[in-house]
Design a protein that fits this description.
The protein is built from 37 helices and 21 strands. A hairpin with a 4-residue loop joins strand 15 and strand 16 (1062-1065). It has a four-stranded antiparallel sheet. Strands 20-19-21 form a three-stranded antiparallel sheet, with no helix packed on it. The chain starts with 38 loop residues before the first helix and ends in a 13-residue tail after the last strand. The protein is mainly alpha-helical and 1202 residues long.
Length: 1202
């Protein structure tokens, strides 16, 4: 058997996914997520869309993560043989690449996109933070190194899968949403500029590894496409192109990838070099040998020594320059305080940002390069972090005064400004003194001059190009000529030959900061750096054009210095954020997490500072919409269960646990789907309807699609596991191959459960951080109540019966009460409280069959008890009424009549039943006396179709009769009862039924309990509340009407309007609301519409009538019989009236007469020409008008509004 990490062999070349079988005898791993092949996209769009080059990076990352996950699965299923260090190193490298890629996006791409398209970029920056946390958690697990523990190995495979899924989904979302927006909103030149800024924002030592890695991971055709695209992205200057393509052509790196050897990624992670290492063993982070095939340009001058005996003392040059700049900033702050002049505050802010960025990268270089090499025990992380916080405070102070303007208190601001600047200056001085006393002596003692130069050069390469272009002139400008020459000499001597073009670029930039007429580079290199690389007498950038003119470097004209009668010029990067309106603020401080250990980064990047008060509303007053987000708490609880308990599936578990686990998963999936559909259909469209919130929810809609796919994958894996479980149970666990396959699927399933937990937890976190506060700022309480009503109005009774116990089980009693109060407020016009009470009471008498139903009943009882404390309404049962005497009955009627808190409908219902209770009691007594001597009335089957022997009646098809609680007789349905009785039947009181096959009277239920009937179903649909059986139609119970309605269900083809208190078709979402609009009689037949079994039609005016009545009524009328508004589009009819009136000729005495009219459709008053029948509204053109005055005072029959 090969070592488990042999699956990693050759994964640099893009074949990592195919090595999964190398880890232990045909390991079956989960099929990797589909990796879109970007070559066709690049071939078609690279010339038009430079931004699409990121697709290649996405493909490379997906391949790498797929290969590493396969290796982790092989390690988990092979018994832990192999060295985990290799996996740790490879993940360190991938983390470094992905972290710098994410920071460059946050710094360049997303701020540019946010200027053109609002509310898109911030979500993806939040995802970067979540992915960084996943890396940290994975490294925490990898560093434990307890690989002999089986649970550890399975957890490792699960975490690698979760990380792979998270990053793959993030990239897929960028490809679906972000990239198309960049292509659409930015021109070719702007896209090229963005990509170039992106490359210039990645640290140099990372670029030197990133580009060769990318080049060797993709195919040869894709590599050629990338080269062509880069030539259009990089400025035309040859020196810049040489720097980038020298990195791209890292032969040593490429050869290692192609060989797929065990150490192919050994150079990925540059760890600290011990003190006992010889100087010649040190290598720069960006050093790549070109091999014998590539001819290097040799230096024109050989250096045998440097003018500085201890090159490590170059740290002092940085310290002195930083202290000088910070001191100058402090003096500027005091000047502002002295004169109160804020005109140059923006310039002051830019200087502060620059020196803060220099300090951050200098700290990273010390923490990552200098201190680990000198002494691993040395650490100034706390000092560096404190300085970063102080810079942030000062910047926030400046931003506050800039935003406040003239309304701010200048005296207080100036005092704080000087105080903060002085604190920074004092902290840096103390910090530098400690470093110089503790670090430099050790470095001078233990390292040769060569090694010291290498450390200094590596420290410089920690910075990105765009910062070095500004830092080198600034640093050299603060040095004496001797120090400047020594600095350039040390840099030149430390750089490897492959960095010749890069050092030339650095030297040219450094020259621009020196005020002397003499070119420093000529002194150091014996000639101008622009000539050195090209090797001829003319400067590199001007030899193609003999005309003497300023040379354009990128987007700016380069500085020129006198250099032995030649122009000393090197190109600038051309990175000018102002071209796209970008902020100069960087995300450099988030890079610290790569150098000081696996700590989660803070949310302090520029994108997280756009709205600093996002979380402020989350701790304030409870809002109606908050209860929707309570579902997140329940989701997290079940996700934790799936993640933790999935580990038990790896062992051959019993039937009960597997069934319980599957049921819990399916419950979570169903309720998550209901929640996500509510967000997609109601919550997110409400957010998007606000003009300032366009695009804010698109990313979360994409999340829902990806999460749904994850649930489907888990469902498929569970089904497969259940099949194997049944097979092993029947086979007595004697099939070893099946057991191996079972364990492999269980391992895969554990990783999938970990993935869905991580994915949804991150989704919930981002949603609560970004979207939740928006409701408090953009929606009133009434609008939030309406949203809550819309959400639960599309939720059926069956879903609510599962959802309410599920949600409340994750909440405290106080949270439960608040949630139920909010729901009651949103459903105050409905029967929701009645349904809730009836459902809880009904469940209290039923013994649950499953663990899930047990939790439902127990939690339901708790909620019912909490509701009873606030509802002391008299709710007698029939047995209570029978025991009352006349005085007690009258007292209860008066009590109910005086109760002002009762809903009028509830009060009328109670009084009616109390008044008729004596007669009902007599009927019950009579039935009880005669029941022993004669059979129950109706104890015989009835048929809907006598010929086919189909049970039922003219109203319903069903296999049972129900026993009326009022008279004790058996009827097929309540309509059959009411047809032959002098009283009506309350079907909800039904407790017994008779099966029409066996004629056995039994408790009402969905099936016959007689053994001879063998569980005969009484009907396809049965409602435990309404006691309705129907075997023909689609029926659902509306918890807000508390009635059964014909239809497929709420959220499917109907929704419940909380204001109208009626179920309406999903095709009528924009109907006109009228409070309790259905609780009236039909204006035609006068039947009560709310409980009517006939189809009801909604009119445009908001009134209702039976559909049959509507058909008959509209044969002769077109206006609502209640409000007189038109009941449809009458344009054709009114056009016919126009033609009719145009053809009529009025008598001469009526021709000029006018009449005052009122339009029933637009409710406006006006005048119309005299007519004995038709009068047209001059505002809306309707003829649905009425005459309010026969003779108008208007002469010209104008349509003036009165």
């Amino acid at each position: 058997m090969s070592a488990p990490f042999s699956a990693l062999d050759g994964f640099c070349g893009g074949g990592g996914g195919g090595g999964g079988g190398g880890g232990g005898g045909g390991v079956v791993v989960m099929a990797p997520p589909s990796i879109e092949h970007p070559s066709s996209i690049m071939n078609n769009k690279s010339s038009k869309s430079p931004i699409m080059i990121f697709l290649l990076f996405h493909k490379a990352m997906k391949l790498e993560f797929d290969g590493l996950h396969c290796a982790a699965v092989a390690f988990a299923t092979s018994g832990g043989s192999g060295d985990i260090t290799s996996l740790l190193n490879k993940y360190h490298f991938l983390r470094a690449i992905y972290k710098h890629h994410s920071n460059a996006e946050d710094q360049v791409i997303f701020p540019a996109l946010d200027i053109r398209v609002k509310n898109v970029a911030r979500t993806y920056s939040l995802e970067h933070e979540g992915e960084s946390l996943l890396f940290d958690q994975l490294f925490e697990l990898l560093n434990k190194n307890i690989q002999n523990d089986e649970s550890y190995r399975r957890e490792l495979a699960s975490r690698t899968r979760a990380l792979q899924i998270s990053i793959t989904q993030h990239m897929s979302k960028e490809e679906e949403q972000v990239f198309p927006l960049l292509v659409e909103k930015f021109s070719f030149e702007e896209q090229a500029s963005l990509v170039w800024q992106f490359l210039c924002s990645i640290p140099i030592n990372m670029m030197a590894e990133f580009l060769p890695w990318l080049s060797c991971t993709i195919s040869s055709d894709e590599r050629q496409d990338m080269y062509k695209c880069l030539r259009k992205i990089i400025p035309k200057e040859k020196l810049l192109q040489q720097v980038i393509f020298d990195w791209m052509e890292g032969i040593e790196f490429s050869d290692a990838c192609q060989s797929g050897g065990e150490n192919s990624h050994a150079r990925y992670v540059s760890g600290p070099i011990p003190l006992d290492c010889q100087a010649e063993k040190g290598s720069c982070a960006c050093k790549y040998s070109k091999g014998s095939k590539r001819k290097h340009r040799e230096l024109s001058c050989e250096f045998s020594h440097s003018t500085q005996p201890c090159p490590i003392d170059g740290i002092l040059l940085w310290h002195n320059a930083i202290k000088r700049e910070v001191k100058d900033i402090a003096e500027t702050a005091r000047t502002i305080q002295l004169y109160g002049d804020f005109s140059n505050l923006s310039t002051f802010d830019r200087r502060l940002q620059f020196i803060a960025e220099v300090c951050i990268f200098h700290s990273i270089a010390e923490d990552k390069i200098i201190f680990p090499a000198v002494d691993s025990q040395l650490s100034f992380v706390q000092e560096h972090a404190e300085e970063e916080i102080q810079f942030d405070r000062l910047r926030c102070l400046i931003e506050s005064i800039q935003s406040a303007g003239a309304n701010s208190s200048s005296v207080e601001f100036c005092t704080n400004l000087c105080s903060q600047a002085d604190q920074i200056m004092d902290s840096i001085q103390k910090h530098f003194q400690n470093e110089e006393a503790q670090v430099l002596p050790l470095a001078r003692k233990h390292f040769t001059a060569k090694r010291q130069r290498e450390l200094m050069y590596q420290s410089l390469c920690v910075m990105p190009l765009r910062l070095i272009e500004r830092v080198l002139p600034w640093l050299v400008g603060s040095l004496s000529e001797e120090d400047a020459i020594s600095f350039l000499q040390d840099m030149h001597m430390a750089a490897p030959p492959t960095d010749s073009a890069l050092v030339t670029l650095f030297s040219g930039w450094a020259c621009k900061g020196h005020s002397s007429d003499m070119c420093l580079s000529s002194t150091v290199f014996c000639r101008c750096p622009a000539n050195k690389v090209h090797g001829e007498g003319k400067p590199l950038l001007v030899q193609e054009n003999e005309e003497k003119r300023p040379v354009k470097c990128g987007n700016s004209v380069s500085c020129q210095f006198s250099c032995r009668n030649q122009a000393c010029c090197v190109p600038g990067l051309g990175v000018d954020p102002s071209d796209l309106g970008l902020s100069s603020f960087t995300a450099a401080k988030s890079l610290r997490s790569l150098s000081v250990g696996p700590f989660a980064p803070s949310l302090n990047s520029s994108l997280f500072n756009w709205e600093s008060d996002l979380t402020s509303t989350s701790t304030g007053t409870s809002r109606p919409i908050d209860n929707i987000f309570k579902f997140h708490k329940a989701i997290s609880k079940d996700l934790e269960y799936l993640d933790v308990e999935s580990e038990k599936l790896a062992h051959f578990c019993n039937d009960t646990f597997l069934r319980q686990f599957t049921g819990r998963f399916r419950l979570l999936w169903g309720l998550y789907r209901a929640h996500s559909n509510a967000e997609d259909d109601i919550v997110f469209p409400a957010l998007e309807s606000k003009e300032t919130l366009h695009n804010v929810s698109h990313s979360y809609t994409l999340d829902h699609k990806q999460e749904e796919q994850l649930f489907e994958d888990i469902s498929s894996a569970l089904a497969e596991l259940n099949q194997l479980h049944e097979y092993l149970k029947d086979a007595g666990r004697s099939n070893d191959l099946t057991i191996i396959k079972y364990n492999e699927i269980a391992t895969r399933l554990q990783g999938m459960c970990k993935s869905i937990r991580v994915t949804l937890d991150q989704h919930v976190f981002r949603e609560e951080l970004e979207l939740w506060p928006l409701f408090g700022r953009h929606f009133s309480v009434e609008e939030q109540d309406k949203l809550v009503g819309q959400i639960i109005g599309t939720t059926g009774a069956e879903v609510l019966q599962s959802m309410l116990p599920w949600v409340t089980s994750a909440l405290t009693q106080e949270e439960q009460n608040k949630m139920m109060d909010t729901w009651k407020q949103a459903t105050k016009n409905t029967m929701f409280s009645d349904w809730l009470n009836e459902w809880w009471e009904g469940n209290a008498d039923v013994s649950p069959d499953t663990a899930n139903s047990q939790s439902c009943v127990s939690i339901g009882t708790d909620i019912n008890e909490s509701l009873d404390h606030t509802d002391h309404t008299f709710k007698p049962g029939w047995k209570d009424i029978f025991r009352m005497n006349q005085n007690e009955l009258e007292a209860e009627i008066r009590k109910v009549s005086r109760d002002s808190t009762l809903d009028p409908r509830r009060k009328a219902y109670l009084i009616q039943n109390l008044l008729t209770s004596r007669w009902i009691a007599a009927q019950q007594k009579s039935h009880g006396e005669s029941s022993n001597v004669e059979e129950v009335f109706g104890c015989s089957p009835s048929f809907r179709d006598t010929e086919k022997q189909v049970f039922g009646c003219e109203h319903y098809k069903r296999n049972c009769k129900i026993r009326a609680a009022c008279c004790g007789k058996l009827f097929t349905c309540r309509f059959c009862h009411d047809k032959v009785s002098d009283h009506t039947m309350d079907r909800k009181l039904t407790s017994e039924m008779m099966c029409m096959r066996c004629l056995k009277v039994q408790p009402v239920g969905s099936i016959c309990i007689t053994p001879s009937c063998d569980g005969l179903s009484m009907a396809k649909y049965y409602c435990v509340i309404c006691k309705i059986f129907d075997d023909e139609r689609d029926v659902y119970h509306c918890p807000f009407c508390n009635l059964c309605r014909v239809g497929r269900g709420l959220g499917v083809d109907f929704f419940h309007c909380m204001r109208c208190n009626c179920c309406l078709s999903m095709k009528l979402p924009d109907h006109k609301c009228r409070e309790n609009g259905l609780e009236i009689n039909c204006p035609i037949c006068c039947e009560f519409l709310f409980t009517s079994s006939e189809t009801v039609r909604s009119l445009p005016c908001g009134h209702f009538m039976h559909s049959a009545c509507f058909q008959a009524y509209t044969f002769s009328h077109y206006v609502c019989p209640i409000c007189s508004k038109s009941m449809g589009d009458m344009a054709v009819y009114f056009g016919m009236l126009d033609a009719l009136l145009a053809s009529e000729v009025l008598p001469e005495e009526y021709k000029d007469r006018c009449q005052d009219i009122l339009c029933n459709d637009c409710d406006k008053k006006g005048t119309a020409r005299f007519h004995w029948l038709y009068h047209k509204c001059g505002f809306c053109g309707s003829y649905n008008t009425r005459v309010i005055k026969l003779e108008s005072t208007e002469i010209n029959c104008s349509t003036s509004n009165h």
